[in-house]
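Sequence only, no structure available. Ideas?
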Amino acid sequence: MSESTTERLRVLTGDTPTGSLHLGHYVGSIENRLQMQEEYDCFFFVANWHALTTRADQTDDIRADTISIVKDWLACGIDPNKATLFVHSEVPAIAELTWYFSMLVGYGRLMKNPTVKDEIRVKGLGDEYSFGFLLYPIGQIADILAFRPAFVPVGEDQVPHIEMTREIARRFNQYYCKIDGSVPDEEHAQRGGVFPIPEARIGRVARLTGIDGKNKMSKSLGNAIHLSDTPKQVQKKCNKIFTGRGSMDDPPVLENNTILEYLDIFMPDKARAAELNEAYAASKIGDGDLKKEVGAAMNALLEPIREKRATISDDDVIDVLKDGCRKANAVAEQTLWKAKQAVRYDFFKREIVLG
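Reply:
I predicted one. C-alpha cells follow.
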C-alpha cells in the first residue's frame, strides 16, 4: 500500500469514549474534521483502550460509549466514504508501537506533561492511578504515529501531547534511522526517517468553557451540553449558565462571561449577536434574554444532528468500524513494519485478518 490511500496528506485524530460528545468537541474538533475530510486522507478513531485508564471496571459502559461516539460523528456529517473511522483496540500495531515508544520517554518527562497533571487533579486521582494511566500518553503517541499523519486536529488542552509526539518521532528517527539532530522537522521523512513530525491543528474554539463558567466543558465535570441532548435539556442547561453576577441587581459582567462567549460562538447571525451584546452591556436586556437566544441558536445547530442520529443503528456503526479497521490495519501494519526494519526487529512480515 502507498503512504496514503490517496495523494493527499494524512490527518489523524480521535476521541476517548466517555459518553456522548458535547459542544466543546464540536467547535474544538468536529468542525475541523468536517472540513478536513474534503481535503485530506483522514483517519478518525475511538480511543477505547484509553478509557480503561480510569474505568477498567466499566467495560460495558465503554463499549456503549464507543458506539455512541461514532453515532455522533456520523450524525455531524463525518462520512465513512471520505474518512476512515475505526476503534483502536482492533489495531494491534498501535499496542506494539506503544512498547517501542515507551523506551524513548523518561518518567520525569512524562510527569511534566501538563495534560497528565491536569487529569490527575481534575479526576481527583491523587496517587491512586494505575500504571496504565501513565502509559496512556505513550499510547496516544502510538495512536498518532501509527498513521504517520501530517496534521492532528486537537483541542488546546491536547497540544502538550502533540509536542511529546513530535519529540518521540524525532528521537526514533535519530536513534534508528540515523537522522541528524540538525535536520528540520519537515525534512525527516524525506531524509529517511520512519516518522514525519506531525503538526497540531487547533479548532475554531481552542477551549470552550462549561456552563459552570469556570472549567473547560467536560462530561466528567457535569458542565457540558451534549450533541444528543433534547431541546428542553439544552435550554435548561443554558438557563444554568453562570454569568458572574452576584444578584440580578448587579450590573452585567462583560469580561469572562460564559453566556457572552457562547453568544459569539453559536449565534450564526453576527449582526444579531452584536445587537444583543450591545443591549446586554447597556442593561436593556438581562441574563435570561441572552440565555434564551443562545439556547435557540444551539438547538438550531443541534436539531439536524439529533434527527440524523436517530436513524443510525448500532449495527450501522459496527459495519462502519469493521470496514474502517480493515483500512486502518493496512496502514498501521505498514508503519509497524517500517519501524521494525529500523529497529532491526524485522524477522518476518505478518497479515492481520478481521473475521
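Residues 314-343 form the longest helix (30 residues).
Hope that gets you unstuck.
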